[in-house]
Specification:
This protein is mostly helical and 200 residues long. The chain is built from seven helices and no strands. The longest helix has 32 residues. The N terminus is likely disordered.
């Protein structure tokens, strides 16, 4: 073995094809979110087991149109954000911005629809004191709205960074982390929707 061999650079290590998207921080947050909602879903099923008739009757009074609209908004915005991630992976910076703006616009439809739904509920005498079903309904859906609001703020932050070329095909972990969080929030709504608007 000679000096040239000792000083030679080691061969590059191949990147693992099983890379975790986003970053460790976002997955810690997503885990906390899932644990929080697992507890809330446990409360839902315990209350439903004790008051089955109240849950059956309460579901008949909710606006299925509002729940369906929110579901479509969440799924569509998730798709647009995923398209933004795909675009930045290919260094299509302008397309990434356009897709993310589209995701933001559609995502903003969620709180707007929720406000209209609450107005509709109150006009029909439905509030948090209307029975156990509505207490659980408001608590779960408001908690989800809070998480979605954090996601919308995240979209704004990532969009600002993306506009100033803070991401590229070489480094897009922030945009990917946002997509992971928004998809997680979307998945939780896809559980909430049937539990309150359909199956109850």
């Amino acid at each position: 073995m000679n000096a040239a061999t000792l000083l030679a650079d080691p061969p590059p290590v191949a990147e693992s094809p099983f890379r975790i998207p986003g970053n460790k921080g976002i997955w810690a947050g997503i885990t906390c979110e899932f644990v929080e909602f697992a507890v809330l879903f446990a409360v839902y099923f315990i209350a439903r087991a004790h008051f089955p008739q109240a849950f059956h009757d309460g579901a008949q009074r909710l606006s299925v149109a509002a729940g369906t609209t929110i579901t479509l908004l969440m799924i569509t915005s998730s798709y647009f954000i995923a398209c933004s991630v795909n675009a930045i992976r290919q260094d299509q910076h302008r397309s990434a911005i356009i897709w993310l703006v589209a995701g933001l616009v559609v995502a903003l439809g969620y709180p707007l629809t929720k406000v209209l739904e609450i107005d509709w509920n109150l006009a029909h005498g439905i509030n948090g004191e209307s029975g156990i079903f509505f207490t659980v309904y408001y608590y779960l859906t408001f908690t989800h709205l809070v998480h979605a609001t954090w996601g919308i703020l995240g979209i704004l932050w990532v969009l600002a960074r993306l506009s100033f070329r803070g991401y590229s095909s070489a480094d897009y972990a922030g945009l990917e982390a946002l997509a992971c969080y928004w998809h997680a929030t979307d998945i939780i709504w896809l559980v909430i929707f049937p539990l309150f608007y359909v199956l109850a």
